[in-house]
Amino acid sequence: MHKKFTIVIAIIALFFTAGCAKSKGSGAAGKNIVEINEKMFAAQVNDVYLNAADYFGKTIKLEGVFKKEQLHVWEEPSYYVVRYGPGGCCGFDANIGFEVKWDKNHARPYPEAESWVEAAGVLKVADKGYYLYLDLASLTILYRRGAETVLQ
Question: pTM of this prediction?
């Protein structure tokens, strides 16, 4: 009986100490970093869009394909970090990710289109109030690409 009790106490202690282990992003500053991972990329991005109020002021960090889009000649181009996923129209894959841009006071050059990048930035809503974007803190070219197409 004493041996079983000791094993149960040891297992309970393991659960409590495992929760105390420091993880990437621990501490006061780490609580404001949301890392979008490859395995659940589409689901996590979707959660940010559906529950944006929960994410404002937090830094979002993700990897993906860097895209540049210029709809009209007279407009500034828009930049995105995306992965491809299901749900697109007309047989095309959907772009899943965020628009990214540098604050005008901290602007840096953008990488070449189709580069694999890691972006980190604070989630904000555009002045017009109808779309979300990441106000970039960093945008780094990575040479090891992850999965460009995601299902979840």
Answer: 0.75
Dist CA 79 CA 115 (whole Å): 12
Quote the tokens at residue 115: 């580069």
Q: Quick one: 107 exposed, middle or buried, by C-beta within 10 A (0-12, 13-18, 19+)?
A: exposed
| Dist. CA 62–CA 81, nearest whole Å | 8
Average of per-residue pLDDT values in the chain: 79
Would you kindly state where each structural domain of the chain is located, as residue ranges? 23-141
Residue 122: CA count within 13 A, CB half-sphere: 10
Q: What is the largest CA-CA distance in the chain?
A: 80
**CATH architecture of the domain with residue range 23-141:** Beta Barrel (2.40)
